[in-house]
Design a protein that fits this description.
This protein is an alpha/beta fold. The protein is 40% helix and 17% strand. It has one domain: TIM Barrel, CATH 3.20.20. The protein contains 11 helices and 11 strands. The strands form 2 sheets. Strands 9-8-7-6-5-2-1-11-10 form a 9-stranded parallel beta sheet, sandwiched between helices. Strands 3-4 form a two-stranded antiparallel sheet. α7 links the parallel β8 and β9. Bound molecules: flavin-adenine dinucleotide. Flavin-adenine dinucleotide binds next to β5, α5 and α6.
Length: 318
């Protein structure tokens, strides 16, 4: 079922959902089930599976020469989605990224997704490879999420890449995109970022999932700005509790967000990592209660493979 239909059927009730990473190459799918099982009590109508672009590793040959090899650490987003749908009978939402894909490969992936009965996709540009300082588009692929989104909406109208495809069937994907309450880090200002967010919605995005944030006022201001700019699709807050003190540095550095002073001071006062985790979970419980009051359609958790903090938060909130 489409995420927008799940939201409509919930009739104003806030839903619970979460996101996971596909298994590292060589690990079993059981690892994913272990990350999902503790969260099924909260009836997620959908579960997202991220997509990681290939990176480069250097292999040393006997001669001493280093060979640069493209390597995908977590290759199985589509298969993970299929396994989740098969086992749990919930919708799985694959993330589709520009990086690493030609248009042809994207088209083929979308055909696979349609055949698997996947109704939703989250369309993203993708992160830069760790070995690159900025995002480098794949030759024959896309530079921005809006371009990839256009390909999905084209297929939703039966338009494939090659005009000679006979009796092309229309897909019917419900399309999500990313939004940044604290601005995407490459954007010169929030208004410019909004211009491109609006472009994604005007091109057919059906819902927005936000980057994580720790201050509900940022979410409220973001939703208000969406509405003021004629962006009327559901805005799903993305959430992650702080679980260790190092995240005071790593989260702002990686995700370009602010941690409120009250939270950072509470973390700094903790005498152990166990206490930090408690502070992070308590903060997130309060945040979630506030988001429900603000009418958030779904609380969407970035579990990063560790379900326990999310389980504790969901137990207190749902
Ligand atoms: P875009 O919408 O393309 O925007 C990227 C930047 O370019 C922005 O600064 C925007 O303002 C600007 N821009 C957009 N269009 C144009 C244009 N036409 N001309 C000029 N500038 C433009 N990354 C992964 O690799 N895999 C994942 O699975 C993944 N999942 C994510 C899930 C969520 C909910 C979020 C919020 C992020 C996720 N990311 C993921 C990270 C995401 O790929 C990065 O934040 C990336 O840097 C931007 O992606 P985007 O889709 O927002 O890009």
């Amino acid at each position: 079922m489409k995420i927008t239909d799940h939201i409509t059927h919930a009739n104003g009730k806030t839903l619970f959902s979460f996101e996971l990473l596909p298994p590292i190459k060589g690990q079993s799918i059981q690892q994913i089930y272990n990350a999902i099982d503790p969260l099924m009590d909260f009836n997620p109508p959908f579960i997202d599976v991220t997509y990681l672009r290939e990176d480069y590793i250097y292999k040393q040959h006997e001669s001493g020469l280093l060979e640069k090899v493209a390597y995908r650490k977590r290759p199985s987003t589509v298969a993970t989605c299929a396994a989740i749908m098969n086992r749990y009978k919930v919708d799985a939402v694959p993330h589709l990224i520009c990086g690493g894909f030609t248009r042809e490969e994207t088209e083929n992936a979308l055909i696979d997704l349609q055949f698997l009965g996947i109704d939703n996709v989250l369309v993203l540009r993708g992160d830069a490879r760790k070995s690159d300082s900025a995002f480098i588009p794949t030759p024959g692929g896309y530079s921005y999420a809006s371009e990839l989104l256009q390909q999905v909406t084209d297929m939703n109208t039966g338009k494939y890449l090659h005009a000679d495809i006979e009796s092309s069937e229309k897909t019917d994907f419900c399309i999500g995109v990313a939004g940044y309450p604290e601005k995407h880090f490459e954007s010169p200002n929030l208004d410019t970022d909004f211009k491109y967010l609006k472009l994604k919605v005007d091109l057919g995005a059906n819902f927005i999932v936000t980057q994580m944030f720790f201050d509900n006022q940022k979410y409220k201001a973001f939703v208000d700005k969406c509405r003021a700019n004629g962006i009327n699709v559901p805005v799903i807050p993305g959430l992650k509790p702080i679980t260790n003190s190092k995240q005071l540095i790593s989260l702002p550095k990686t995700f370009h967000l602010d941690i409120p002073l009250e939270l950072s001071e509470a973390v700094q006062k903790c005498k152990s990592e166990k206490e930090v985790k408690e502070v992070g979970i308590e903060w997130m419980i309060e945040q979630c209660r506030g988001l429900k009051e603000l009418g958030a359609p779904v609380l969407h958790f970035y579990t990063m493979g560790n379900p326990e903090p999310t389980r504790r938060i969901a137990s207190a909130v749902f």
